[in-house]
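Please check this:
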Amino acid sequence: MSRSTPTHSSIAIIGAGVIGLSIAWRLAQRGAKVAVFERDAAGRGASHAAAGMLAACAEVEPGEERLFTLNRASQSLWPDFAAELEQASGQSVDLRRDGTLVVALTADDRARLLHHLEFQHRLGLTPEWLNATQAKRREPHLNPNLTGAVFSPQDHQVDNRKVVVALRIAAERAGVELHEHAPVERIALEGGGARGVIVAGTTHRADVVVLAAGAWSRGIEGLSARPPVRPVKGQMLGLRMDARAPLLRHVVWAPGVYLVPRHDGRLLVGATVEEKGFDPHLTAGAQLALLQAAWRALPGIEELPIVESWVGFRPGSRDDAPILGRGPVPGVIFATGHHRNGILLTPVTAEAIATLILQDRVDPLIAPFAVDRFAPAAAAE
């Protein structure tokens, strides 16, 4: 990583998830003085709760072409980013490049999947249609009555919890100062611009403040126009497979559920999408729905022990795309609102925000995702 001369001598970052930590790491690598402030323990929010899928191709939907361009750009950065991060931290992040299967269990599922496949081909993607026999050849334990599948060879996964650990180590080795259990009360303003952050009544001065607090970003005071970010609740659970003979080797999307196998034998089952604010409770109905959908796709899970269940809060914006770039006052930078794509968008976000701060240049990839796309409604709130 080449170093550049920082335009700003000190940067305060609010939030120590994958977005905040990766930005901090990139900035510190280039000689900036960086302090990160986290309300909880580092990486214990959405970064901990995620599944780590890098599924830009399987998840693309009509109307999301600009977001798809950003997602694909970041997806292409992941192999080199993972290798660099592993070298800098000495920790594996378990990037798996097995591809993703999207399966159809009924005739209606098959029709929807074929329609989506046509859309993907129009975007220049190369997913492959598999008949039932071909799909079962790749994953023998899938429902024997499935009606087909799409194999997406460019969609991979990474262990998000290992990424958090690695980013923390790499950032601190690069000189980042990490403050945990240090909730930022407000952004300190002076002379019409940001001058730092206030924590427990103490002002920590900085030339630039990066708001990367995920679902909690809107709660940071000090700005007349805060980013329109809300928590989108997601429930998940983890099962235990035999790591020597796992039921599943690919990431699998099925109606109502996704299944993500890990090297250590865990099988992640997710995830609900609930507009319930910061409700932290697991619910019987949501857990039942996930398990039923998973069982329909992979009947053998009924013998697997449940080892973990959890709730996470995705940071959703009004259009469920990230908010990246300059904030409403000089010296404030937004890097939030990543919704379900936080892990996927980590490399491109870190690079683009570091470039914006150190070179005062907006990467064309993030230009469509500035907060002013919500004006005038955002300013009126």
